[in-house]
Design brief:
heterodimer, A: alpha/beta, four-stranded antiparallel β-sheet, 30% helix, globular, B: 283 residues, alpha+beta, Alpha-Beta Plaits, 2 domains, 9 helices, rod-shaped
């Protein structure tokens, strides 16, 4: 981590999209450890591009991405891979592997950790129980409901002790009790000290105490 | 699950997850390798056949009249010392007359006071020694010997045999290159198809922090498996097939076991390279 406790910093970022339009110009953003930021922006405002910048899938024309205290160079594949191992993603470009079971999806981020198989299995069982998904352990991810998928993705995002969570439209397509369940999980994760960036198109109550709220508009965060 | 078990699970998953596609890939590569094996065995057998025929050639050198009978032994000893010479047989004037009688059925020299037929030496060679290169060297060595008048051998036949042998080798090389290209393209295509069916998984694993090398390994292993399985199956079928065949005048020559192992190793390496190219194009 950098000295000021910042886990993620985007400094004076300029980025042009694939179609040639300017996505960001002089964009600045910072997230402190164990804090939550909510970025609100309409469809097409560049939320996914922002996620791609943070995980090294896109390279800015100018400016820096400083993550876990280090400048991220999107061309250094090994550095990018190591950074991604520390990020838990939910929604947007992150999804479950539909051909795999819930168990297999949860073990995937732990492949890179030097832990015994028993320890990993126990951890999965613990998280399945915590998220109320024990009965779905061996179900293919493709057969889950949208709410269950979000819950499994949230479990996958923290199961390998990832210090940073990127959550894209967590409540999209959810209603009623499922929505309340996901909100409760997000609140629990925030209270548990996870650093989170939540991307959403609509303002809403995520039940998170004292989040920093930004509006993404015309390529700038305000 | 460790990295190793993940890689092995994905490797076997690629094969068992699409069994018909995997079987189709192995079968098509097997047929290509079988074609190569057939060409290889055919070429080796043709070369052995020509070598055997060439080895049977003898050279006859005719001696000039200046050479006294008493010095022929000295000349024969000098020839015996030339590399590749196995045996020398002297044909005297009388022997030559007998041979002519045998061929013509009558004594054409009857009534002549002196036998005009030349004396000669018939030289036979060690097995597999004669070829056009050795022959021209030998011819030059023999022609330098004092008393050698003329050197006789079936040069035209030998030239044809040599060019046929060369043609067989060139054809094998050309066929080998074509089959190699077909094997590489076929393997690359199979790996690309496998990668496409797993594209969602590859993308998600990249997002979870899997590096490109880590993701490539199962596909490279798949390429190695295709090359090894197809080439080994090709030789097993060849081995049993050749046991059923026999020709009276032609010896079937199968490559040695180390050559076959080396071939399977090369096929695996081709599979590995194809696997790498195939997955590199996909991630």
């Amino acid at each position: 981590m950098s000295g000021n406790g910042s886990i993620l910093e985007l400094v004076d970022i300029t980025l042009t999209g694939v179609s040639g339009q300017r996505m960001f110009s002089g964009l600045n953003f910072g997230l402190e450890e164990k804090k939550t930021a909510i970025i609100i922006g309409p469809t097409g405002s560049g939320k996914t591009s922002l996620v791609e910048l943070i995980i090294g899938a896109a390279e800015p024309e100018s400016g820096s991405v400083i993550i876990f205290g280090k400048h991220l160079n999107a061309r250094k594949v090994n550095q990018v891979a190591r950074v991604r191992q520390k990020i838990g993603g939910v929604g947007g470009i992150y999804s479950l592997i539909s051909s795999q079971t819930v168990y297999e999806n949860l073990i995937d981020p732990m492949v890179f950790r030097r832990e015994t198989h028993t320890h990993k299995r126990n951890k999965i069982d613990k998280y399945l129980s915590e998220f109320g998904l024990e009965a779905k352990r061996d179900a293919p991810a493709g057969s889950l409901s949208q709410g269950e998928k979000v819950q499994v993705m949230l479990a996958r995002a923290i199961i390998a002790d990832q210090p940073l969570l990127l959550i894209d439209e967590p409540l999209a397509g959810l209603d009623g009790s499922v929505r309340r369940k996901v909100v409760e999980t997000l609140r629990r994760l925030s209270m548990g000290g996870h650093s989170m960036v939540i991307f959403t198109a609509l303002e809403g109550d995520f039940g998170i105490p004292d989040p920093k709220v930004y509006h993404l508009d015309s390529g700038r965060l305000a | 699950m460790t990295k190793f078990s993940y890689v092995m699970r994905k490797f076997f998953g690629n094969l068992w997850g699409r069994p018909l596609a995997a079987l189709g890939s192995v079968l098509s590569l097997f047929l290509l390798f079988l074609l190569f094996d057939l060409a290889w065995v055919g070429s080796l057998s043709a070369i052995r056949f020509y070598d055997a025929r060439i080895s049977e050639i003898d050279i006859e050198i005719f001696l000039s009249d200046e050479v006294a009978d008493s010095t022929i032994t000295v000349l024969a000893d000098a020839i015996q010392n030339i590399d590749g010479v196995e045996e020398i047989q002297l044909v005297t004037r009388d022997n030559a007359r007998e041979r002519l009688n045998d061929i013509m059925g009558v004594d054409l020299l009857e009534g002549m006071e002196e036998n005009p037929l030349p004396r000669s030496l018939i030289i036979s060679f060690q097995p597999n020694f004669l070829n056009m290169v050795n022959l021209s060297r030998l011819r030059s060595d023999l022609s330098r010997l004092h008393g050698v008048d003329e050197i006789m051998f079936p040069s035209q036949w030998l030239e044809k045999a040599e060019s046929t042998k060369q043609l067989a080798e060139d054809l094998l090389f050309l066929l080998g290159v074509l089959i190699l290209i077909a094997v590489v393209l076929n393997s690359i295509h199979s790996i690309i198809l496998t990668a496409r069916t797993r594209m969602e998984e590859l993308l998600q694993m990249q997002l979870l922090g899997a590096g490109p090398v880590f993701l490539m390994i199962p596909f490279i292993l798949e390429g190695i498996f295709y090359g090894l399985a197809a080439s080994a199956a090709g030789w097993i079928v060849m081995h049993y097939g050749m046991e059923l065949l026999s020709f009276r005048d032609l010896t079937i020559v199968i490559p040695t076991l180390p050559e076959i192992i080396y071939f399977c190793f090369v096929a695996s390496a081709i599979g590995m390279i194809s696997g790498y190219i195939g997955i590199r194009r996909s991630i």
